[in-house]
Amino acid sequence: MKWRRTTALITALIASTRCIETYAASSSRRLLVDGEFESIGNPPMPVQMPVPMPARDFSTLGRAVTKHLPAPFWTKDAEGRYTGVNDYFTRVFGFDVAGAVIGKTDEELVEAATVDLLIDEFDGVLPNETFKSIWGRLRDNDIIVQESGEPTRFLERIFLRDEKRVIPVNAIKAPYMGGTVGIAVFGHLDEGGITLDLVRDDDEMSIGTSDDTDAEAVRIESLGRAAVQGGAFLLWTKDANGRYTALNDFYLDYVGADDESDVLGKTDLDIVAVAAPDGIDDYEGLLPGETSTSIANSWSEDDLRVIESNETLRVIERDFNDGRVFDVISIKAPFAGGTVGVAIPVYASDASDVVNAVDVDA
């Protein structure tokens, strides 16, 4: 397999914000506990999209994203109305069925989700922040993506209705079908709360568009297609032995694969052996004692933790690209006896924006 790591993605991210390198060298895996990444005023970061891949099967990633992925995922039309949302998105905003969200704008969604609620009742609210300012920024960022035609990473604010909290999220939005496709990765870990209760491999989230199984199948297919073809983030599934079973186009382009056959069935050690045959000793940002093998092993160890616990894991992992080693936020959850995962690079305008980082083994 010819390896052609996508360098434009990391270059663009680094150009806009600084890589966070404040973690101790003793461990390359860090849990995030209430991590405040940065204020809502920071500029967006452009992200380069991959070259379209051949025709794909969307069923595996469709079910993984719709029923198991512990991160809000959605699609919108050109007017900013939701055309698809996964179960996690639906639950976070306090709705019983995904169909209750479809067709709404951010303004309408926020209004419906906050009936009889005041923002003063929520924790984590910034000075002068309102529900209107929250949904207004979401829409403004959609317009930026639509007008530029480029995927972009934003630091946004959303609220967790049931927990009555306003939190920062890393959102990546990309043009899709005349509108946008997006995902939001939380910067905190909900221990025993919304995340761990929602995603279990033996009990799928029972949220659907309606009781119509055909409509639900269409929703899963549609979201799977959007995640595979439009998602500007790394998305994958693995089996119980850590071998890749599905990836989105962005991931395939990131690792320089011509199609899925170059990656499917391979382990993390297989992947890094091709990515860095001469090692990463001269890479910028390398921690003492860190190697490509230790990085791959940490990914596999985190997968095993998810499988053994049957619970979601949010963790800071290490990755490398274009001569640099850097942190990524990885969210992993049980899926089909193995795992589903999503990852985006961690960057902020100032290292002090990340607080309460703790060692996994602490």
Query: What kind of oligomer do you see?
Result: single chain
- Helix and strand run: HEEEHEEHHHEEEHHEEHHHEEEEE
The count of DSSP E runs of length 2 or more, i.e. the number of strands, is 15
Q: Please give the CATH architecture of the largest domain.
A: 2-Layer Sandwich
The first-to-last residue Cα distance is 40 Å
The low-confidence parts are 1-43, 188-211, 348-362
Q: Which structural class do the helices and strands define? A: alpha+beta
| Tally of separate helices | 10
Proportion of beta-strand residues:
15-25%
CATH superfamily of the largest domain: PAS domain
- In total, how many domains does the architecture comprise? 2
CATH fold node name of the largest domain: Beta-Lactamase
Give the neighbour order of strands across the main sheet: 10-9-13-12-11-2-15
Main beta-sheet strand count, sense and barrel state: 7 strands, antiparallel
Organism: Ostreococcus tauri
InterPro entries: PAS, PAS-like_dom_sf
GO molecular function: photoreceptor activity
Signal peptide: 1-19
Please outline what is shown here.
This protein is of the alpha+beta class. It has helices at residues 7-16, 59-68, 87-92, 106-113, 131-148, 194-198, 213-229, 249-254, 268-275, 292-309, and strands at residues 18-19, 30-32, 45-46, 73-76, 82-85, 152-160, 165-176, 179-186, 234-238, 244-247, 313-321, 324-335, 338-345, 347-348, 357-359. Helix content is 29%, strand content 24%.
